[in-house]
Design goal:
The chain is α+β, with helices and mostly antiparallel strands and about 500 residues long. It has helices spanning about 10-30, 50-55, 55-65, 85-90, 100-110, 120-135, 150-160, 170-185, 195-205, 205-210, 215-235, 245-255, 260-290, 295-310, 315-320, 325, 335-345, 380-385, 430-450; strands at about 70-75, 75-80, 100, 165-170, 350-355, 360-365, 365-370, 375-380, 450-455, 485-490.
């Protein structure tokens, strides 16, 4: 019996075909516009559906088709996407009275707190109360003071994974770091059991940030438990107790300024998101790319063995004495290069800025006209993979950032398009802590374990890293986890 009903696939084909005809005609009529505008079918919505379904893939396709600067309508926001090193640099260094990141903060707070009426108080808490604390405690000079027990905590958590035949790479990398870092921020009342809620909530973050509906109720409940746990920790924190570290400083600020804890807790969760999200992804890709290149893996591990032996004497002394200052050393130059190379490759978008007035954004020989009320979306990925600055820029090259004479962990990026830690007034406040976290975790992981990746496909004869998820935002997320076998190298 013949059916005349259209299938979903046929309907989709018709819609795509009509859309292509429409877009082709629009492009023909607007071909001379500068910056070129990404055509769209629906007013106000614009390209929001395409962007929300896969931000990184959408931007990559638009960059390939429309060039280094283009306009796109995203849910009522007129966005100008800039991708060149100069345009991104100039946007990051622009006066805050001309370009503000307030809208970006609002998007982040919306992800951590559903009650938008709290936003003005949260923003004030975050920007004017907590940021000065972070500036002071996480500066290069002071960060040693909050990391005293970090290596010991990571070591104790890693021991739990030893000897297992099948271990989640993501969990074995991120759970120890989550526990060690969050204890710095939440103090003596922090519970490591909150990692499960963190992971549940964090997995939905790309969806939340682009405001796609229908995320899971487990994630929403996990967020609620995290906020409650943060509130409990902040209320109990004592500024005079060394074990409370940053939590004590936060608690003091909250009480001195009569800030409700319902406003303070989302602000702290937003800080934790900023610290953990990019770090977790970078740890995952660092190990994935090293495991995919046996030569690189062995080179880094050999440097770690030698560096620990020459700088600390043995692993136990390293665990007791590791600090950001001591790990910013030529003894770990290759590991430092691997970290910088990973962050170069994983950085996708670098924030959104709102124009508070009309201005001209310089880009090369010309300028981009930006009107008041328009947004600038910073997309440095093309610049950070440009072959002129980075030969084979799309590949992981272990030695890319090794200097002939070591001058500091971040100095190899000077003069190059590198925006993994931001720039200007918007440079990442936790960059020195982040470098230390990655180094400690990698040093301990590769010192303690022989690591063997397990193929994702049981029928496969080899192993390859997963592909980046098209839904990635901020930094690359993997399409799936990796499982490894961990055999002890030392007696634990």
């Amino acid at each position: 019996m013949t059916s005349y009903a259209l299938t979903a696939a046929q309907i989709s084909t018709v819609i795509v075909g009509l859309g292509f005809v429409f877009i082709t005609r629009v492009m023909a009529s607007k071909g001379s516009a500068h910056p070129p505008e990404v055509p769209y079918l629906l007013p106000w919505f614009g390209s929001a559906f395409g962007f929300a379904s896969g931000p990184s893939k959408f931007l990559a396709l638009c960059h390939a088709q429309f060039g280094p600067v283009f306009r796109v309508m995203l849910g009522g926001r007129n966005m100008i996407v800039v991708t060149t090193a100069e345009s991104v640099h100039n946007a990051l260094f622009a006066d805050y009275r001309v370009l503000t990141n307030r809208s970006e903060h609002y998007d982040h707070f919306h992800a951590v707190c559903s009650d938008t009426s709290l936003y003005p108080m949260i923003f004030d808490t975050f920007s004017h109360k907590f940021f000065p604390v972070l500036d002071r405690r996480l500066s290069k000079r002071a960060v040693d003071g909050v990391t005293k027990d970090f290596a010991e905590t990571v070591f104790q958590r890693l021991k739990l994974f030893s000897g297992k035949e099948r271990v989640s790479l993501r969990r074995s990398l991120t759970e120890p770091v989550y526990v060690a870092v969050t204890a710095i921020f939440l103090g003596s009342k922090f519970s490591p059991d909150s990692y499960e809620d963190w992971l549940t909530f964090w997995n939905t973050l790309p969806i939340r940030l682009v405001r796609r509906p229908f995320w899971s109720f487990p994630s929403t409940r996990a967020r609620g438990r995290l906020l409650q746990h943060i509130t409990t920790c902040l209320q109990a924190a004592n500024p005079d107790n060394d074990d409370d570290k940053l939590a004590g400083d936060f608690s003091k600020v909250i009480r001195e300024n009569n800030i409700p804890f319902e406003a303070a807790s989302p602000a702290v969760l937003a800080v934790m998101l900023a610290l953990h999200t990019n770090l977790f992804n970078n740890l995952f890709w660092l190990f994935s790319w090293l495991m995919a290149d046996p030569r690189a893996f062995c080179s880094v591990r050999d440097e770690i063995d030698k560096g620990i032996r020459e700088e600390f004497g043995n692993l136990q002394t390293f665990i007791a004495e590791a600090s950001p200052r001591r790990l910013d050393s030529p003894a770990f130059a290759l590991l430092n290069s691997a970290i910088l190379e990973t962050t170069r490759l994983t950085t996708l978008q670098n924030g959104v800025r709102l124009a508070e007035s009309d201005f001209q954004l310089k880009d090369g020989e010309g300028t981009v006209s930006v009107r008041k009320g328009e947004y600038i979306l910073l997309y440095p990925r093309p610049a950070q993979q440009n072959g002129a600055s980075y030969p084979d820029g799309h590949k992981f090259v272990l030695e890319r950032f090794v200097q002939s004479q070591y001058q500091g962990e971040l100095t190899p990026t000077s003069g190059k398009p590198y925006f993994a830690f931001g720039a200007g007034k918007h440079v990442c406040k936790g960059r020195f802590l982040a470098m230390f976290e990655i180094k400690v975790l990698t040093l301990l992981y590769l010192s303690l374990f022989d690591v063997t990746p397990i193929p994702h496909d049981p029928q496969s004869s080899g192993w390859e890293p997963p592909q980046p998820s098209p839904q990635s935002i901020g930094t690359m997320h993997p399409t799936h986890d990796v499982f490894v076998k961990l055999r002890p190298r030392v007696t634990l």
